Amino acid sequence: MKYLMLIYGNEDVWNSLAPADLDALIGEVDAFNEALRESGELIGVEGLIQRPRSVRMVRDVVVVTDGPYLEAKEFVGSYFAVDVDDEQRALEIARSYPGVRYGGGLEVWPLMERGGEL
Amino acid sequence: MTPDDRVEDVLRSLAPQVLGVLVHRYGDFARCEDAVQEALIAAADAWPRTGVPENPLGWLTTVAARRYVDMVRADSARERRERAVFDATPPDALVAPAPDEEPVRDDLLELLFLCCHPGLAASSQLALTLRAVGGLTTAEIATACLVPEKTMGQRISRAKQRLREVGARFEPPPEHEYGQRLQVVLHVLYLMFNEGYSTSAGAELRRADLTRPALHLVRRLHERLPKSGEIAGLLALMLLTEARSQARTGPDGTLVPLAGQDRSRWDAVAIAEGVDLITRTLATRPLGPYQVQAAIAAVHDEASSIETTDWPQILALYEVLERLAPNPVVTLNRAVAVGMVRGPHAGLALIGELESGVLAGSHRLLAVRAHLLEQAGDRVAAAATFQEAARMAGSRPEQRFLLRRATANRTA
Fold first, then answer.
1. pLDDT at B202 (0 to 100)
2. Do B146 and A39 touch (CB under 8 A)?
3. Are A94 and A106 a contacting pair, CB within 8 Å?
4. Distance separating alpha carbons of residues B232 and B212, to the nearest angstrom
5. Domain of B293, in residue numbers
6. Homologous superfamily of the A2-110 domain (CATH)
7. Residue B205's pLDDT is what?
8. Cα pseudo-dihedral A14, A18, A19, A24, rounded to 10
9. What is the rounded distance in angstroms from the CA atom of residue B109 to the CA atom of residue B163?
10. At what angle do helices B149-165 and A19-38 cross, to 10 degrees?
């Protein structure tokens, strides 16, 4: 089963980290990604650049603007996707994500792909 | 059958034999497996042009053995390893054998036991089986499982490493474990088939690249162990399920449920084979869950329509299955049969028992509930429940199907 993990960041929290802590965290996240890659469960991982665009219908026109999310305290900072045997494993991975300890959070979304017979 | 298909078939059936010969000769499963893969790729490249050689097994074994020695040479501990290989190799094995001298080993079962080792995660068992026994390339397995090739390559190499760590050996499991280990093998083949049959990513509802090797492997297992009732049962189940596959997809790629399928498109030859096999097996072998599932599939396949289906017999079979292998999904299926035999309210009552279990909130439970509500004439509740089921559905074709039924109930 495949899961998309959305990792929420929070500028206030990141900026409050001491340089040594930040380095430690980056190291931990690298190791976390590497372990998932080695186990053959990692589908992909990317950070997101904080300049999202919002595309919406305003009356009859499709309008593109800067994302409304930039004003929010929390934003999606990165994501990774895994292919694992069950949801329990997905949650275990999510719980062990190093960034969680520093605030922010992580959402676990099952990806639609395979269904049983009706 | 095109020449390419023929080559592919030959390669798939020979892959486990070549691997067996090599592992027996050299012992190092991981490296032998890599060598066999390279030999298969070389053959897939050459044979469509040159034709299949007279002794394809000898050809593949010779090429794979050469690749193996190349790999060992390339290793950093070159000399030491070379000597070890040389010492471990009987002198006559260093010369490529004459075509008629290569002993035809069949190590299919030992290979399956190894790939389906209980120390591996289910997804790894599946991947390793497809590669080492099914003869698929890493890229093909990645495509079939819908993950990037890199992910799959890593998963396979991790699985091989794990086999080394747990000390898995290339030999049949001890007698007291045999039955249990065979169950794992059958389960992996069942998963492989199921994955292929019900996967519905993109436009495809069904992936022949998984159902075909699964069916092929179970057939070969059945040839080796014809007395096993459960292997025969699994083979019959796959035949009887695969027989309906053409009718399961509509012209626009949508899912066509059993009730709406054009039964003239079912594969009569496969049905005849499956029915014959399961009938003989049920009469002569101890009963098991795969046999009962095959029997249920046979009852469906023999009916000319949903209405003329022998639902009391299906219900009785689900009751047997639930006793043999209790499982909420079986109970859910029994609820559909109960609905057909005793009416929708009896089915709904049975479903009530599942509401507190692992299926609570799953789209399958919701879909069955909605279906029974529809039959009971409660259109409003049926529409809402189909809508909820669609929201939880795991695949797009299923989601569309459920949404359509929600709409149909709203407008009725």
1. 42
2. no
3. yes
4. 17
5. 235-248+262-303
6. Dimeric alpha+beta barrel (3.30.70.1060)
7. 46
8. -80
9. 17
10. 80
Residue B55 lies in a domain: yes
In a domain, B74, yes or no: yes
CA separation (Å) from B230 to A73, B10, B187, B192? 58, 27, 11, 16
What are the domain boundaries of chain A? 2-110
Report d(CA B62, CA B52) in Å as an integer: 15
**More confidently predicted of A109 and A13:** A109
How many cross-chain Cβ pairs, A to B, lie less than 8 Å apart? 75
Residues in chain B with CB shorter than 8 Å from the CB of A43 are: 147-148, 151
Distance between B57 CA and the closest CA of chain A, angstroms: 32
Q: Is B209 helix (H, G, I), strand (E, B) or coil?
A: helix
Residue A25: C-alpha distances to residues A29, A106, B113, B340 (Å): 6, 16, 42, 59
Residue with tokens 């066999």: B36
Shortest Cα–Cα distance, A4 to chain B (Å):
13
Give the closest-approach CA distance of B264 to chain A in angstroms. 21
**Of the partner residues A40, A41, A112, the one whose CB lies closest to the CB of residue B394:** A112
Neighboring chain B residues of A37 at a CB cutoff of 8 Å? 154
Q: How far apart are CA B370 and CA B50, in angstroms?
A: 58
Identify the CA nearest to B18 among candidates B75, B70, B68, B77: B68
Of the candidates B294, B344, B292, the one whose C-alpha atom is nearest the C-alpha of residue B319 is B292
User: The pTM is what?
Assistant: 0.78
- Identify whether the C-beta of residue B56 lies closer than 8 Å to the C-beta of residue B12: no
Question: A residues 16-75 near B, CB within 8 Å?
Answer: 37-44
Q: What is the pLDDT of residues B139-189, one digit of tens each?
A: 888 887 778 999 999 999 999 999 988 888 877 888 888 888 898 899 889
Task: Count up the domains in chain B and report the number.
Answer: 2
**Of how many residues is chain B composed?**
412
Q: Which tokens is A4 given? A: 């998309």
The CA distance from B129 to B114, in Å, is 9
Sign, Cα dihedral of B22, B25, B27, B31: negative
CA dist B320 and B313 (Å) reads 11
Specify the amino acid at residue B223.
E
- Joined tokens for residue B140: 């093909």
Q: Which residue of A has its CA nearest to B148?
A: A43
B128-156 per-residue burial string, b: 16 or more CB within 10 A, e: under 16: bbbbbbbbbbbebbbbbbbbeeebbbbbb
Q: Is B103 left (phi over 0), alpha (psi -120 to 50) or beta?
A: beta
Per-chain mean pLDDT for chain A: 84
Residue B279 lies in a domain: yes
Helix (H) / strand (E) element for A54: namely strand A53-58
**pLDDT of B308 strictly over 90:** yes
